Amino acid sequence: MKPSYIIVIGTSAGGMPALTQLVAQLPATLPAAVLVVQHLAPNSSGEHLVSRLSQHTQLRCHLATHQELVEAGHLYLAPADRHLLVKDGRLMVTKGPHENSYRPAVDALFRAAAVNYGPAVIGVILTGMLHDGTAGLDFIKRCGGQAVVQDPDDAEFPSMPYTALRSVEVDYVVPLSHIGALLQELTSQTLPPPKPIPDDLKAEAAIAERVVGSTEDIDKFGEQVPLTCPDCGGALWKLEQGNVLRFRCHTGHAFTADALFESSRHALEETLWVALRMMEERKNLLSSMATRGEGQWSVQQEERLDEIKSHINRLREFLLNGSTGATKASDQKQA
């Protein structure tokens, strides 16, 4: 049966226990299709997750397959290492570029649903880490849909709900135990009238579907900035439509500002660890040179050795304490 509504759910850390509790609240007669992105490791299998969900719900649960018909009373889980999109009443399962460094990405699913179903979309953010799904909720709101977020105080990992609440005008913030009843109430209501779909979201949805993806396309709705994509090294464009600042490269990688900051932090930390390893190797070489030399030449190597030891100690202290301090500051800010 054709669904009246499309419910899209995004979750990450702590997601499976939350999903099993949520789907247990949904009846087989739900007049909506439920599409789920749970962040998975690339080499994991979603079949056992589908089997686990099936044991807790009357909905018919599937691992999503490309071009599968979307039906009411059914749940579709994104496969590992594939984006789940929806268009023209069918699922699209693609290996498109990562968004917020994830594939499957919550933002990709939410955008596709928003562009194609407008006010018939209900977006739900559950427990999880970092920022995926925040921009997606904003996409849904811009297209006339509704946004539901699990109460951060009720979430095992509150980062995803908290970030969504910080950036998006969410319609409902409820504990997990009440979300099922809320979804049943919302899907029983008459659909609101459609509103125009923003051109920038149409263009981004097309990029995710691999229809377009050139610098000329992104120039139409973004401004190129002196930053590089951490995934491919290409130029980035700043996208300021909506309430969530985002960045995108022309090959399709996309980031919220928070996700880009986190990705660049990881890249910087990895670079500094490589630098520390190279400095340690240089120290060992200088030590060997100093012990085998004589006179002034040996003294010079000893001086260089002392200097590099000082640099190594400073860099090691920064890596062991500085990055931890930054993480603590971020945690305190969210708290």
Structure, described:
The protein is α/β, with parallel strands linked by helices and 335 residues long. The protein has 2 domains: 5-187, Methylesterase CheB, C-terminal domain (Rossmann fold, 3-Layer(aba) Sandwich); 259-334. The protein has 10 helices and 13 strands. The strands form 3 sheets. A 7-stranded parallel sheet has the order 3-4-2-1-7-8-9, with helices on both faces. Strands 10-11-12-13 form a 4-stranded antiparallel sheet. Strand 10 and strand 11 (235-239) form a beta hairpin. Helix 3 (106-117) packs parallel to helix 4 (134-142). It is elongated, with a radius of gyration of 24 Å. Mean pLDDT is 89; it is low at 324-335.
Write out the CATH superfamily name of the largest domain. Methylesterase CheB, C-terminal domain
Average pLDDT metric? 89
Content-based structural category: alpha/beta
Q: How helical, in percent, are the residues?
A: 40-55%
What integer value in Å does the Rg equal?
Answer: 24 Å
The strand count comes to: 13
**If classified by CATH, what would the architecture of the largest domain be?**
3-Layer(aba) Sandwich
Reported by name, the CATH topology of the largest domain is Rossmann fold
SSE string, helices as H and strands as E: EHEHEEEEHEHEHEHHHEEEEHH
The main β sheet shows up as: 7 strands, parallel
Approximate strand percentage? 15-25%
**N- and C-termini, Cα separation:** 44 Å
Inertia-based shape: elongated
CATH secondary-structure class of the largest domain: Alpha Beta
Figure out the total of helices: 10
* Unreliable spans: 324-335
Protein name: protein-glutamate methylesterase
EC number: 3.1.1.61
Active site: 12, 39, 132
Keywords: Chemotaxis, Hydrolase
